[in-house]
Design goal:
disordered N terminus, 7-stranded mixed sheet, alpha/beta, Metallo-beta-lactamase, Chain A, 6-stranded mixed sheet
């Protein structure tokens, strides 16, 4: 992203709180969609096919107390402050992990190929290293990483709750191949090399020694038969830019999408998939963060968005993380195929897939 475009982005956000929010969260309502996104044609990009995909939620608990996280950001100067400059609360949080408000997002993905072989990789790697270590141990990821069973790590975006727990992965396999989206800042690459950022209580004591790939935006990056990633140029809060999502073409079922946060907006994402991928007119499943009312600040326009999801014929919807509980309730009430969880391991409710829960498509 050029210096000029970054300046234009900041100017745009300064226009007003509402405009700034939509710029950061992505175009998500059907009203916004109909205004800015032309009708999409079905795409032709062929990513092949796979037999099935299993998604295991290692942690969707990015932080434990919403008001406390927002207060940290407010005290530091607001939503545009560099995340590496924010002194995040890491003591005295009753519902946190060992007093720390930081949790983290991480998901294990297993793909079964048409020949029956299975391959595993990790999407994101948490925030609080102690919490992420606990989650990795609980689900056996520590051993999977150590024995090379997990082939690579994909970082959806540079946000604190998706990337800052990198040490939890590297301590078990420092040479693991890592894929990041275009838009990472210098601090993100420095952290990977073993840097410390005392102000935000962040460090990585295990430098990465393996290959690192930065994925260009606007392209379909094929990973294995039936699996690809797509990176979007999207501005996000706390000076983060760019997000990468995963797409799967499951034989006889259709397209599956797995997101970290979906800052580009779920409607924008599905329209892009439809217009880009062969078979994109059949979106069978969506799993991950949908970035709709993540702080339970429901807006009437989101009702329009929930109802719009019916248009895509989704058969399995595994939302969590930055999808608010109110959002999940609205989706269930609208008879969308939301898969519920078990509310275990510090996930607060069973209204959606939580820590330790799985989804297969």
């Amino acid at each position: 992203m050029s210096d000029l475009s970054r300046r234009d982005f900041l100017k745009g956000l300064a226009v007003g709180g509402t405009v700034g929010y939509f710029a950061m969260a992505g175009v998500s309502s059907t009203v916004m969609k109909n205004t800015f996104i032309p009708p999409a044609k079905v795409g032709t990009e062929d990513i092949g096919e796979c037999k099935s995909v299993s998604v295991k939620v290692i942690s969707e608990t990015s932080w434990f107390n919403n008001p406390l996280l927002l207060e940290d950001i407010k005290k530091a100067g607001g939503l545009l402050v560099n995340q590496y400059e924010i002194p995040w609360t890491n003591t005295g949080v009753e519902e946190g992990w060992k007093g720390d408000n930081a949790g983290g997002y991480a998901t294990l993905i297993e793909v079964e190929q048409l020949d029956g072989s299975k391959r595993k990789f990790l999407l994101d790697t948490g925030w609080n290293v102690d919490w992420t270590d606990e989650c990795f141990k609980r689900e056996g990821l520590d051993k999977m990483l150590a024995n090379g069973e997990i082939e690579f790590l994909i970082i959806s975006h540079e946000h604190f709750d998706h990337y800052w727990g990198i040490e939890s992965t590297l301590k078990h396999r420092p040479d693991i191949p890592i894929i990041v989206p275009k838009g990472f800042y210098p601090e993100g690459f420095e952290l990977l090399k073993g840097a410390e950022f005392p102000k935000c209580h962040l460090s990585n004591k295990v430098p990465h020694t393996g290959p690192l790939e930065v994925r260009e935006s606007g392209k379909v990056h094929k990973i294995m038969p039936g699996v690809a990633s797509i990176t979007f140029d999207v501005p996000i809060i706390t000076r983060v830019f760019g997000e990468e999502v995963l797409v799967f073409n499951v034989k006889d079922k259709g397209i599956g999408i797995v997101t970290g946060c979906c800052h580009m907006g779920i409607i924008s994402l599905m329209e892009h998939v439809k217009s880009t991928l062969k078979g994109g007119d059949k979106i069978y499943a969506v799993q991950g963060g949908l970035h709709i009312s993540p702080f339970e600040d429901w807006d009437p326009q989101y009702d329009d968005l929930v109802l719009a999801l019916h248009h895509y014929g989704i058969e399995r919807l595994g939302c969590n993380h930055c999808t608010g509980y109110i959002t999940a309730e609205k989706m269930v009430a609208a008879n969308l195929p939301v898969i519920k969880g078990t509310a275990q391991f510090k996930s607060k409710r069973d209204i959606y897939l939580g820590n330790g829960d799985s989804m297969t498509f």
